[in-house]
Amino acid sequence: ANFRALSSGINAEYGDGWEERYTNDGVKYYVDHNARKTTFQDPRVTMTSGSGASVPYERSYQWKFGQFRHICGRASIQQGHIKICVSRTSVFEDSFNQIINVPAQDLRRRLFISFKGEEGLDYGGLAREWFFLLSHEMLNPMYCLFEYASKNNYSLQINPASYVNPHHLTYFKFVGRVIALALFHNKYIDKGFTLPFYKRILDKPLTMLDLKSVDEDFYNSLKWVKENDLEECDVELYFAHEFEVLGEVKVHELKPGGEEILVTAENKDEYVNLMVGWRFTRGVSEQYNAFIQGFNEIVNVKWLQYFDERELEVMLVGIQDIDIQDWNMHTIYRHYKRTDKQIQWFWTFIKEISDEQRSRMLQFVTGTCRLPIGGFRELMGSNGPQKFCIERVGKENWLPRSHTCFNRLDLPPYRSYTVLKEKLLLAIEETEGFGNE
User: Is 144 part of the annotated catalytic residue set?
Assistant: First the structure.
């Protein structure tokens, strides 16, 4: 493997005896010469302070992004380019026929995009336009490959009924290649996926809470099961579930013999976990496997190990220019007044932070970093139009919470700007465990 030694002994950044190396695919890993072991885990994460307490190594989004761009640069093929010529009226099919038949390695060359009947050299602008037009078409629910997560969530997920197209698995492999190409060549796509879909790409465990943004009714039913005594409520459930695809009712057993296994107080946690796993994979396992196969041919998912699902969304769909004045103008308040000091501090915080952090705040509260064409005044919630809302909830020692179905931020009445800033930064940088709902 290619490698670059950090030092011959003590290294101030990684510690004594550590060495940084790269696999042939360009993935960074670390060698612990003291223990004679290798790991993909950055050793700085588990270093301790002088008192022996664990000190986490803070990675900013820019640091992670820089690492990923470095890996892509090492994996790119410098010689030559790959030429793709499409018609604007058939950009989906033209792109499909060319990309699916090109060896994956060749797609790591520089892209040279041209549109039939148009003159122009591609210095990046045509490639950006091509990714936008192609993603707009191939992710269009009209083609039955993807569907909206719900009636009020326009993020995309795989459509279980995609099999109506007999070649759908080849198309999913193609989509996987295109999404990975966008990441590899640092371009944006037009539409975004659900956060649970990004978590699957990153091989992160899916939880019951992940269901809420994509199927609130399903989430509420499982929450009811967890919180109630089924026997007292005279409810019989079994380790099987009926679902409908294109009018056909099917039964899925969550475990062998599930139709005969009654859900009880002792096994209902297992039932809920199995239902969560099934809900995210029902009827789409083959499609997802084809997608991730195409994806991995261009970008090894290990290259994304440092990112969370929100950062992956930002990399794919970009950070919109957020108009703070528009945001302020179309925000409503509950148990706060616009003149309250906590609200004044909130807007000071929004003005001070970076574009990337503003995007993460938008994700934290609304579930996505994308805005409707009409801006903040057209934000949608679970029951239709729903403006960004800040509600006074809790005590000063509470952490901020978000309710993405209602675009609502629960902001405790912090007594100082310093505390408010600290708590909000924690919320947007370390969202896991902050009670998103």
Answer: no
